Amino acid sequence: MNTWKIAGIALLIAGVLGLLYGSFSYTKETHDVKLGPIELSVKEKQTVNVPVWLGVAAIAAGGALLLLGGRRG
């Protein structure tokens, strides 16, 4: 399996997951304060929305890589 096919499969999977879930979230640690024996930290939850057009474009690009990536010209 060459790198073009692997990239095509990865794009297809990412595009399908983007369409199915629509967004993903992660936790980001923003502040860290140490006052003697006391430690304070603030964590923020960030959400990233994945546009539908991006998922469709990833699926199309992955399909194109799978179909055309193995050809040698």
UniProtKB/TrEMBL annotation:
Q: Which UniProt keywords apply?
A: Membrane, Transmembrane, Transmembrane helix
Transmembrane segment boundaries: 50-68
Protein name from the UniProt record: DUF3185 domain-containing protein
